[in-house]
Amino acid sequence: MKFNEFNYNRPDLDIFKKDYQENIDQIKNANSVKEALEGIHEIQALQNEINTQSELAEIRFSINTKDAFYKKESDFWNEQLPIISEWETDYYRAILNSPFLSELKQEIAAPFFDIIENSLKVFDPTIIPLLQQENKLVSEYDSLIASAEIDYKGETYNLSGLTPFMQSTDRQERKATSELYANFFQENLADFDRIYDELVKVRHEMATSLGFKDFVEMGYARMNRLDYTRSDVEVFRREVLEQIVPLSTYIYDRQAKRLELDELKYYDLNLSFPTGNAKPIGTAYELIQKAEKMYSDMSPETADFFNFMVKHDLMDLLTKSGKQSGGYCTHIPNFNAPFIFANFNGTSGDVDVLTHEAGHAFQLYRSRWINEPELIWPTHESCEIHSMSMEFIAWPYMDEFFGDKVEKYKYAHLSEAVTFLPYGVLVDHFQHEVYENPTMTPEERRSKWRELEKQYTPWKEYDDNEFYEQGGLWFRQGHIFNSPFYYIDYTLAQVCAFQFWERSHVKEDDSFWSDYLNICRVGGTKSFQEIVKLANLNSPFEENSLSEVTQAIQTYLEAVDEEQLI
Q1: Buried b or exposed e, range 534-544, using 16+ CB within 10 angstroms
Q2: Looking at residue 2, what is its pLDDT?
Q3: CA 329 to CA 350: how far, in whole Å?
Q4: How far apart are CA 124 and CA 126, in angstroms?
Q5: Are 529 and 542 in contact (CB under 8 A)?
Q6: Which of 547, 564, 562, 27 shows the shortest CA–CA distance to 240?
Q7: Contact assessment for residue 478 and residue 415, using Cβ atoms and an 8 Å cutoff
Q8: DSSP 7
Q9: Are strands 315-318 and 337-344 parallel, antiparallel or unpaired?
Q10: What angle do CA 219, 518, 552 make, to 5 degrees?
């Protein structure tokens, strides 16, 4: 069965609520652990049905935000999911109050109980209207981003479609299209400011009404930071400032010399090479064929996985009018199916997003043995280890995608992963500032962004672009609007992925693959630091944790002859 044959039916939630309550009562009144587990398994089936239908609606709406039916269904789920959270709260409370709790902990992995405890901390029926308002605001942001229709040289592009021109070897074209990109945000500045201002206020009200000091505390619980704290993150941010910012400065200085520019402007940063960035060879269909061969050659496990994705048409990759921006992977439980969403635009990012989201999808495919919906995914920072590492694990096959430009691709891929880290921790630091100071005005928030930007990304020169100079670049970062505090996860995972890169491509340590398979299989049955340990990686929260891999990256980059990069 192909994805377009997956049947969507809006469920009768009155019936579901009744079934939920009957099984909650069974858990509460169970006379044995077996009876309690039977109630849990019945509710898991209900969760899977709800998640299947809500995911189908959201996927199809994201593919075409102009589809009136799925717009209506998306609105329906935005209203109902917070209400369903109340049922789940009762379910989780019944488990934690069960006289068979110790026996249940022998049957279900420990993170499940940590996660449901967090769920009880971050939900109360009184905040349902606030959760519904939050969902509406996030949908408004997504629709605003998807509404971009930018005219350039007689054609109309969305934000993703404009990206190739922003990497042009013609500096005037880079500048012109970068300004068009920024102008969309400038023209809609009042709406972006308003949406985010309302989101901050809604989230702060939720947090304080639930007894949290601020939304930072609530956000950490929401994100299930199971085994690290705010202070651990601060250590990591310092490591990035001390180790990664200097390496990033080296990369950009070398880039400026390669481009024969005295100084890189913001519109130059996306062009790594004077003859142009490496681009994948072939149509979107041909890239899928190459990916199919790559995963067939990589291992029996990846071959089985990718054949499944192709057979069931579980990828939507082309950019088109009305399609949401960005890329994601999600899970459709009742079909045991991952789904990959992307916006191909003819750049190397097409290969990056394919391998990245395939890393997520491979983990989901490997974790299908897990019964608990809460554990099919790991927590977010662990999820990103699978995806970011897969980008580097795919390196030996990149000549098929890039031909004689493969060394340019590898240099750019690695160096861009390095320069991403300061930006990633900047996004996280900014959100701490925002939610610790919720009364800031929109102007003060933008000013704070620009202040932090100068600290973490000192190479940003905006050439008098008013919108960026006043601190508006973060408008384009959807995570800030729709997934607060989901960004440090990428950076934590990136330094773990660097260690997989070092083991596989520098140390030639073949054991990396069995470690990677192991962490994909465990899903969310282990916490972040447990997964790091299982993978035989160093924790990013230790002092000087980045020094070895940073040196390995610099040595690799310095060894690349500039002749290969022209």
Answers
A1: ebbbbbbbeee
A2: 97
A3: 14
A4: 5
A5: no
A6: 547
A7: no
A8: P
A9: parallel
A10: 80
* Alpha-carbon gap, residue 312 to 393, rounded angstroms: 25
Backbone angles phi, psi at 539, to 5 degrees: -70, 135
**Cβ contact 97:28 at 8 Å:** yes
Amino acid at 344: F
| Secondary structure element (H or E) that encloses residue 339, with its range | strand 337-344
DSSP characters over 225-276: --S--HHHHHHHHHHIIIIIHHHHHHHHHHHHHHTT-SS--GGGTT--STT-
Q: Tell me the two tokens of residue 487.
A: 């960004």
End-to-end CA distance of the chain: 47
**Average pLDDT score over residue span 398-418:** 95
User: What amino acid is encoded at 537 in this protein?
Assistant: L
Place of tokens 């901050």: 200
Task: Report the pLDDT value the prediction gives residue 562, as an integer from 0 to 100.
Answer: 85
Is residue 350 over pLDDT 90? Answer: yes
- The whole-model pTM stands at 0.90
% of the chain surpassing 70 pLDDT? 100
Is the Cα dihedral 399, 403, 406, 409 positive or negative? negative
Task: Spell out a b/e string for 264-291, using b for 16 or more CB atoms within 10 Å of the CB, else e.
Answer: bbbbbbbbbbeeebbbbeeebeebbebb
| Rounded mean pLDDT, 235-244 | 96
Element (DSSP H or E) covering residue 28? helix 13-29
Residues across the chain: 566
Where would I find the H helices in 340-397?
349-366, 380-393
CA dihedral of residues 245, 246, 248, 251 (deg, nearest 10): 170
Residue keyed to tokens 């950490």: 220
Residues in contact with 407: Cβ distance below 8 Å, sequence separation at least 6, in sequence order: 560, 564, 565
The span from the CA of 249 to the CA of 435, in Å, is 30
